[in-house]
Specification:
This protein is an alpha/beta fold. It is about 40% helix and about 20% strand.
Amino acid sequence: MFSRIARPAVNLTRSLSTSSQNNAKVAVLGASGGIGQPLSLLLKNSPLVSHLSLYDIAHTPGVAADLSHIETRAQVTGHMGPDQLGAALKGCEVVVIPAGVPRKPGMTRDDLFNTNATIVATLADACARNCPEAMICIISNPGLDPARVNVPVVGGHAGKTIIPLISQCTPKVEFPQDQLSALTGRIQEAGTEVVKAKAGAGSATLSMAYAGARFTFSLLDAMNGKEGVVECAYVRSEETECKYFSTPLLLGKNGIEKNLGLGKLTAFEEKLVADATGELKASIKKGEDFIQNMK
């Protein structure tokens, strides 16, 4: 499974105009939410998508009807409620899951774990039953032209487990230690910054939708045979002591072709990884225990 990457390298404008093999059926589960709606809009705009299947527990027919008036080739269907989940997933090649309850001021990501883990587990089970070969992308909370900057973000998706490898940034950049520490801290707390700025009206949704769409386009490009597609994603891994860890991945027709690992780290980044390990291991154990208790 793939999770959100903070800064995918693929250019969204290029992907929107790509005209290679473009007959993919893509499902968005949680399509009526704050991330799901703008994400669905971005996917509807892409010639890589021929059928956009939208699912949520409420309001999906309205979202689908609204998007269907956009004059792009993707057919849009809306599916609402558990009884229609199977139909929404049937025949899908890619499933994007932004579903979940958003954070509010004062809440940590951990506060939402049981609720959102249950939602994702239910949807993942439905994918296994109805489109077992599909690629599944799960969106979870991680001075130059930003469109030309790529920074690998490794580790996890919460606080200090979010590790931007600024030493591996392209194009290459350098910062004094105090600026590097401040920049790293701000990246780690970016989601909380948006939650506070929205003052109870929601969490980071538009930027998350954009990142989710960019990742989906990268995956579709790779599935269509484009070579050299690299994205960071949180997957089962043997690159560190943690069973799951986000690292750059070479994507291909069958999903992950190769885990590219962490590469060469600076001493500052090695400490970030070490500091994140304990929290990541605890989060992974919590997830594994959750699944065991569901059986």
